[in-house]
Amino acid sequence: MKKKKFVLAFTVFQTVLIILAGCSQPQPIPVRVLVLTMFEIGENSGDAAGEFQHWYEEYFYNADSFEVQGAFSPLFINNDGVAGTVTGMGKARAASTLTAILKDPRFDFSKTYFITSGCAGASPERGTVGDVFICDWAVDYELGHSWKESDAWESGNLFMLNEDFNIDAAIKLNSDLVQWAFSVSEGIILDDSPQAEEYKKLYPHELANSTPSVRIGASVTGDNYWHGRGSSMQAFLVCEAHGASPYGVSQMEDNAFALVLRSFGYLDRYIVVRSVVNFDQPHPGQTVLESLNTVSGGFDIGMINGHRVGSQIVRHILER
Fold first, then answer.
1. How far is Cα 27 from Cα 16, in angstroms, rounded to an integer?
2. Which residues contact 206 (CB under 8 A, 6 or more apart)?
3. Could you report the per-residue pLDDT of 181-239, keeping only the tens digit for each?
4. Which of 22, 162, 176, 267 would be a feasible disulfide site paired with 262, CB 3.0-4.6 Å?
């Protein structure tokens, strides 16, 4: 009888310990939105703004910050569940930082919306400096077979698909979410600048001389910061070869983010917001190197416009 009582008491004691151990474990912090920016200039506040500063000043000035092992920089989370970080530039940094954050058990991403907010280049045939693109595809510029123009055969084609890469090289984003993000961005007044207006006049294309607006198109990711009309045409060709929507903007991270989010089962809640800060090619009479070194007047307005559209989307997500 005494032995049975002892076993019963010991079992109860173990149960209590298990319950107490469970209670002592902090619950993961639910994240409503995770904003992914790629770089900042200097400090997060009070100086020239890169991609993160406007977000920091609106959402994270007094927010908690967390060091995440394997991430490029701290993760900030405010009381509304809005999180943001600087991931570093390029596909490797983007993928490794986002993976490290998603695997951190301190955070709950089961209902999170993910937003890329960063700058980009665009063809003068598809948009203008100051535009903001909400992207419907994330396409890798480099995954496939390509060769130099000097080695091209008679067709002039410089790119060929590789079936081993296709599933990762072109990732279609959630069409309904893209259209929803575009719809809540309608009516937003985007900034322009006298310097950008003068710069745009050097290009003969109709869209290049338009007023900044919100558009939809494919986001083309390349680790090589390419520039020039030939490279721009290559981006159109790569999108066409994959059956994606027409090339909209060029950047260095979005396909990597999309691949990671797809691996974790979160791709359907991914929104890409890219602001155009330069054209991807020189204007007539200008060399590629001269174009690369030109100040378009688009950087500051791009940082403002990208945040303006992105934060409007965040506000509507928080209201859902």
1. 19
2. none
3. 999 998 899 999 999 999 999 999 999 999 999 999 999 999 988 899 989 999 999 99
4. 267
Among positive and negative, which fits the CA dihedral 275, 281, 285, 290?
Answer: positive
Strand partners, 251: 221
Q: Is the pLDDT of residue 16 over 90?
A: no
Using an 8 Å Cβ cutoff, are 158 and 237 in contact?
yes
Do 311 and 181 meet the contact criterion of CB atoms below 8 Å apart? no
Residue 7's alpha-carbon distances to 4, 13, 16, 20, 303, in angstroms, are 5, 10, 14, 20, 67
Distance of CA 251 to the CA centre of its chain: 9
The CA R_g of the chain, rounded to the nearest whole Å, is 23
**CB neighbour list of residue 250: distance below 8 Å, 6 or more residues apart:** 120, 121, 122, 141, 220, 222, 226, 232, 235, 280
Strand extents, DSSP E, 80-213: 82-86, 107-108, 113-122, 132-140, 145-146, 159-160, 170-172
How far is the C-alpha of 244 from the C-alpha of 156, rounded, in Å?
Answer: 21
Euclidean distance between CA atoms 310 and 316, whole angstroms: 10
Which structural domains are found in the chain, ordered by start? Answer: 27-319 (3.40.50.1580)
Task: Please enumerate in sequence order all residues whose Cβ is within 8 A of that of 132, keeping only pairs 6 or more positions apart, or say none.
Answer: 185, 190, 212, 213, 214, 215, 273, 274, 275, 276, 305, 306, 308, 309
User: Which amino acid type is present at position 61?
Assistant: Y
What angle do helix axes 175-185 and 299-319 make, rounded to 10 degrees? 110
3-state helix, strand, coil in the chain (%, to 5): 40, 20, 40
